[in-house]
Design a protein that fits this description.
Number of strands: 3
Strand content: 5-15%
Largest sheet: 3 strands, mixed
Number of domains: 1
Helix content: 40-55%
Radius of gyration: 15 Å
Strand order of the largest sheet: 1-3-2
């Protein structure tokens, strides 16, 4: 059974505390390096975040795939408006100090908006949905763990489920 928003918010305390920080990615990634590929070069990270090659799967296809979610998983389609209105536009994400990580990705991609912010908007919604359903697919458990250890999950090296999660460490 899906949790109420209050129950979800309480269960997500570590995630909420991360999102409430004014400074993000201000220290090196400190999580487990087993099963992940840690990169500090934004050009490499950006390539994994948005490129489609024969060598590795396209990150949005891997991370947005619903095949890892249970059939009973209930998506909260009102979550976006709740996070925009009630929680200061995703905890003020666009005004955070990313300690240059967003600028590095912006320069590497040449896009109008940093992929760090774009991907984080998506990840925030999916992670809250996981808390609400009390179910984290293994990939999303790893993605959450990367964030909580100051890394930015940005790609997949290989062909999913084989391969490794790519983590950008800002330092």
């Amino acid at each position: 059974m899906k949790k109420t928003w209050a129950e979800t918010f309480e269960a997500a305390t570590p995630w909420v505390e991360f999102l409430q920080r004014d400074n993000l990615f201000d220290v090196p990634y400190s999580g487990n390096t087993g099963g992940v590929m840690v990169v500090t070069d934004a050009n490499i990270a950006n390539n994994f975040a948005g490129a489609q090659t024969d060598e590795f799967d396209y990150w949005p296809d891997v991370s947005e795939s619903e095949h890892d979610f249970l059939e009973t998983f209930e998506w909260d389609y009102n979550l976006h408006s709740r996070l925009r209105k009630k929680y200061n536009d995703y905890f003020g994400l666009e005004s955070k100090n990313f300690n240059g990580a967003d600028e590095k990705f912006f320069q590497a991609s040449g896009q109008v908006c940093s992929q760090v912010i774009e991907l984080m908007f998506r990840d925030i919604k999916i992670i809250f949905n996981c808390y609400a359903n009390d179910y984290f697919p293994p990939l999303w458990k790893r993605i959450l763990d990367v964030y909580l250890h100051d890394g930015f999950p940005c790609g997949w090296n290989g062909h999913y489920p084989e391969g490794r999660l790519v983590v950008f460490s800002n330092f």
